[in-house]
Write a structure and sequence with these properties.
The protein is an alpha/beta fold. It is built from nine helices and eight strands. α5 (about 160-170) packs across α7 (about 205-220). It is globular.
């Protein structure tokens, strides 16, 4: 990874010095050797503070929204998850492709607490799906990874067991909205949870309203989730949100035969359009 880090610094420095980008988003070091943080380089000399190692867990694409209204192009270090997230933002009309310069990085997975990070274990797209240029050589994909194993375990439980499971999980929620804030599919101009009109969303942190938030959010992104796992990673209460998200992804794929989200910037998605050939056995 040292070669990728050197190449990333050199490329970011060149893009900033030539004025091709006004800011370059990558990862930076922290005082903890096994932790990194998003890093925003705005001057050529800042590029030397960029790092790339096995601890670059943050998915960076959503930070590009901070630059959507400016005139400058933003540079982004992007792996499979970042590029799928960019496609999601572009398809949702939240970002223009011309506003971001994508430096692609093939990724073999990141580590957390000394082992493969949970969000990387079942990643099926480790190479960037779009890029302006690529650092390094493509890596082997793992298309045969069982994405829905945990979902099927829950599906095999009784309705009472599933209800008790999610009641226990959402009783822990503190409504910090870290899941929403990190999710590239949660990109509404104003989130419904921030509305103060009566009836939009209760503000109490209790199990019932926490569950209402969690399930509503899951349905909102059900056909748009890129399965980056960032929501679950950042949850301070360790709620297994990807079990819920992947349940919706699985159902959408079963009912509509949809492709995985974020593989292109095509704006169509299963729950946002229809045709007369849609399956109707569930009605």
């Amino acid at each position: 990874m040292a070669d990728i880090q050197s190449a990333l610094r050199e490329k970011a420095r060149s893009l900033l010095a030539d004025g091709k980008v006004g800011c370059f988003i990558g990862w930076g070091a922290t005082r903890f050797p096994t932790r990194t943080t998003p890093k925003f380089a705005s001057k050529p000399e800042d590029a030397d503070k960029l790092v790339y190692n096995e601890h670059c867990l943050n998915t960076l694409a959503k930070y590009t929204l901070d630059f959507q209204y400016g005139t400058e192009v933003v540079g982004l270090a992007a792996r499979g998850c970042e590029t799928r997230a960019l496609n999601r933002l572009i398809a949702d009309g939240r970002l223009s492709r011309e506003k971001v310069y994508i430096v692609g990085i093939p990724c073999e997975g990141m580590k957390e607490d000394g082992k493969m990070a949970a969000k990387c274990e079942v990643c099926r797209h480790r190479n960037p799906v779009i890029h302006d240029e690529l650092l390094g050589q493509p890596v082997a994909e793992q298309q045969n990874q069982p994405r829905f194993e945990q979902v099927m375990e829950l599906e095999n439980k009784s309705s009472d067991e599933r209800y008790d499971f999610w009641q226990k999980q959402f009783s822990k929620c503190i409504r910090c909205y870290a899941c929403r804030n990190s999710c590239p599919a949660c990109n509404c101009m104003v989130c419904y949870t921030d509305q103060y009109r009566t009836g939009w969303m209760g503000k109490q942190a209790n199990t019932l309203e926490n569950a209402a938030f969690g399930f509503t959010r899951a349905y909102h992104i059900g056909d748009r989730c890129i399965e980056c796992g960032e929501c679950e990673r950042v949850c301070p209460m360790e709620i297994p949100l990807m079990k819920l998200n992947r349940k919706l992804v699985k159902d959408v794929e079963t009912l509509f035969g949809s492709d995985e989200a974020g593989l292109s910037d095509d704006a169509s998605h299963a729950l946002g359009c229809y045709n007369k050939e849609d399956l109707e056995e569930f009605m």
